[in-house]
């Protein structure tokens, strides 16, 4: 329809203003990331003078060298990476399998099963009771605490189920006639056909895993289990809590082999390291999640 | 005592049963067992002697927080931040979707869309870092820009102003989520019948007129559904992360919400029973909101029949 509309002067003014406003939206959204990126590549002492906006004034890799030398950051990166890979594969596999069972209207306990999970969207035991359950299971200070409690989320189950509901029933029926059991039907037919929604959910759970910090914060005390986001929280609260801490850390940081940095610049560098994987991956999966999001909104 | 037919069905569906049983166990352990922990709120729970041996206290902890003036501050913050988030989040998302819908250049449209979803995928930890950086008093972009334009005479320490916290957290929520929420509204707009626009053209509607009389009414059902869902979720809308991460010692009076308060009682002060009581309070308010929202949606659906 759009091409057939005559474009008069008023139209062009409207389009111009609209495009300008959207451009501002784009800049306001992107610029803060760019600002952090520029600061992370700028000499830390120079940054303190202020006024670094569009391009590093005094380019350096020191901030990144510094964070890669901090031993807990290598551990943190490793843990974040591992929990994202293992956790999201486990979650997406479990979500798909359970969603398939829930999508089978003929299953004897289908209603009960669905209710069991939907209720958990609205009622929660709360922070402390959950903490004691995790503690009772021996999951404190255990890597499994990153994988098991986050295994399933009802919202993802529901969007997977509604996608599977839309698949043609005839495929399943013919497989049943051929004597395939329900697990084979799921693994060989439903799972491959559900790839678009599985990719969407994989992205969602991977992002959830990569961004999680609260579980590290409350369930682990062992430094070997730290995660990137949690290290970032620690350094953020250090630099907001008191300026004295800043000075302490600055003295410590100034010590190492001619490499200069400040807590502020370290913060920028870690922020970049924690953001890059998301920025790199997500444009490629965009077409999937837009679909998944609209599907979830309609049926969820 | 199962009827033979059901028994046969059960045997036939043994694979389905086996496929869901591990997850049933999981949900019982991680979502339903904690509900028994609610008992804690009615007892003076001491971990050393266990939940069963701890002394019954009835509603003591509920009474205790209900007379605490700080508690009302917390409830106020939770509601105000939730409402601001829902109202501005929805309005900005609709506005963004409307603007995108008017763009004719596909490349430009796609680029802005891609950019606008990005903040949704980064954590609040990163968003807070970004906010602390761009709002900083020494060389932060926002202060320097305002100084340059001449709106302020000296840098403002934005993050230390309790009264500004609600504004900052709402801007944060909108910045992070508006693009993402706009996806739904945009999808609703693309499914509006194209012939309506042609008819509108014939009737002499301009661009604004078409937005007002065709696009907006066209997405009304979507707005209604999402608003109902948002009302049901109002009390959780402010969330733990924004309040905890953007807040600091200077803003506690305005930044602490119920989620943060529950955490402070429970894990910082180890007052487990008190924290559990607050958890129950939270769940009860959420359920009330949810049921009211459901009632409301019933009305909406009847209204839609016109």
Description:
The complex is a heterodimer of chains A (300) and B (306). Chain A is mainly alpha-helical and 300 residues long. Chain A has a single domain (61-299), classed as MetI-like (MetI-like fold, Orthogonal Bundle). Chain A contains 14 helices and no strands. The longest helix of chain A is centred in the C-terminal third of the chain and has 37 residues, at 263-299. Chain B has two domains: 4-56, no CATH class; 60-304, Orthogonal Bundle (MetI-like fold), CATH 1.10.3720. Chain B has helices at 4-12, 14-36, 50-53, 60-66, 69-101, 106-121, 124-134, 141-149, 165-190, 194-202, 207-232, 240-246, 252-255, 258-268, 272-304, and strands spanning 43-44, 55-56. Chain B contains 15 helices and two strands. Chain B has 306 residues and is mainly alpha-helical. In chain B, helix 6 (106-121) packs across helix 9 (165-190), helix 7 packs parallel to helix 12 (240-246) and helix 14 (258-268) packs antiparallel against helix 15 (272-304). Helices cover 75% and strands 1% of the residues of chain B. Chain A: Residues 77-285 form the ABC transmembrane type-1 domain. Chain A: Its main location: membrane. Chain A: Keywords: Cell membrane, Membrane, Transmembrane, Transmembrane helix, Transport. Chain A: This is Carbohydrate ABC transporter permease. Chain A: InterPro entries: MetI-like (IPR000515), MetI-like_sf (IPR035906).
Q: What gross morphology of chain B would you assign?
A: globular
Quickly give the CATH architecture of chain A. Orthogonal Bundle
Overall form of chain A? globular
First-to-last CA distance of chain A: 32 Å
Element-level helix/strand string of chain B: HHEHEHHHHHHHHHHHH
- Structural class call of chain A reads mainly alpha
Helix content of chain A: over 70%
- Total number of domains of chain A: 1
Fraction of helical residues of chain B: over 70%
Transmembrane segments (chain A): 12-34, 81-103, 115-134, 146-164, 185-207, 266-285
Main location (chain A): membrane
Subcellular location (chain A): Cell membrane
Protein name (chain A): Carbohydrate ABC transporter permease
């Amino acid at each position: 329809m759009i091409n057939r509309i005559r474009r008069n002067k008023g139209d062009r003014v409207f389009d111009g203003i609209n495009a300008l406003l959207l451009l501002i939206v784009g800049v306001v959204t992107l610029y803060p990331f760019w600002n952090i990126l520029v600061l992370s590549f700028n000499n830390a002492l120079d940054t303190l003078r202020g006024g670094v906006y569009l391009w590093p004034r005094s380019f350096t890799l020191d901030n990144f060298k510094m964070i890669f030398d901090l031993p807990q950051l290598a551990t943190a990166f490793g843990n974040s990476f591992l929990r994202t890979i293992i956790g999201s594969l486990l979650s997406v596999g479990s979500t798909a399998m359970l969603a398939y069972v829930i999508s089978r209207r003929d299953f004897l306990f289908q209603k009960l099963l669905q209710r069991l999970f939907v209720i958990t969207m609205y009622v929660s035991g709360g922070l402390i009771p959950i903490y004691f359950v995790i503690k009772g299971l021996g999951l404190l200070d255990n890597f499994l605490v990153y994988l098991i409690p986050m295994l399933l989320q009802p919202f993802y189950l529901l969007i997977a189920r509604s996608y599977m509901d839309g698949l043609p029933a005839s495929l399943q029926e013919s497989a049943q006639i051929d004597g395939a059991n329900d697990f084979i039907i799921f693994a060989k037919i439903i799972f491959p056909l559900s790839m678009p929604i599985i990719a969407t959910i994989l992205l969602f759970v991977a992002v959830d895993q990569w961004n999680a910090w609260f579980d590290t914060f409350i369930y682990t005390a062992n430094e070997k289990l730290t995660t990137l986001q949690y290290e970032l929280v620690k350094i953020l609260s250090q630099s907001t809590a008191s300026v004295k801490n800043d000075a302490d850390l600055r003295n410590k940081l100034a010590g190492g082999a001619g490499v200069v940095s400040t807590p502020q610049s370290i913060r920028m560098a870690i922020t970049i390291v924690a953001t890059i994987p998301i920025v790199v991956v997500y444009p490629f999966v965009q077409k999937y999640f837009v679909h998944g999001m609209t599907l979830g909104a309609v049926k969820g | 005592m199962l009827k033979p037919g059901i028994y046969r069905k059960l045997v036939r569906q043994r694979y389905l049963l086996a496929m869901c049983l591990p997850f049933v166990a999981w949900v019982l352990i991680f979502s339903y067992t904690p509900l028994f922990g609610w008992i804690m709120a009615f007892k003076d729970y001491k971990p050393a002697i266990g939940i069963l041996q701890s002394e019954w206290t009835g509603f003591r902890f509920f009474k205790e927080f209900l007379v605490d003036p700080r508690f009302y501050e917390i409830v106020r913050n939770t509601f105000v931040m939730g409402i601001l988030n829902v109202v501005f989040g929805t309005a900005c998302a609709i506005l963004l979707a409307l603007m995108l819908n008017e763009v004719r250049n596909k490349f430009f449209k796609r680029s802005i869309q891609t950019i606008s979803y990005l903040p949704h995928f980064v954590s609040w930890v990163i968003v807070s870092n970004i906010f602390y950086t761009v709002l900083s008093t020494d060389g932060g972009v926002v202060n320097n820009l305002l100084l340059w334009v001449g709106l302020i005479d000296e840098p403002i320490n934005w993050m230390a102003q309790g009264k500004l916290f609600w504004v900052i957290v709402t801007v944060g929520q909108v910045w992070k989520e508006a693009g993402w929420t706009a996806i739904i509204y945009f999808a609703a707009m693309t499914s509006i019948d194209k012939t309506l626009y042609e008819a509108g053209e014939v009737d002499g509607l301009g661009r604004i007129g078409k937005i007002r009389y065709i696009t907006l009414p066209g997405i009304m059902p979507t707005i209604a559904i999402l608003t109902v869902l948002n009302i049901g979720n109002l009390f959780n809308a402010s969330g733990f992360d924004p309040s905890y991460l953007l807040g600091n010692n200077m803003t506690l009076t305005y930044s602490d919400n119920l989620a943060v308060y529950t955490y402070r009682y429970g894990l910082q002060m180890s007052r487990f029973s008190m924290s559990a009581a607050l958890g129950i309070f939270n769940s009860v308010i959420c359920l009330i909101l949810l049921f009211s929202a459901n009632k409301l949606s019933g009305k909406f659906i009847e209204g839609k029949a016109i």
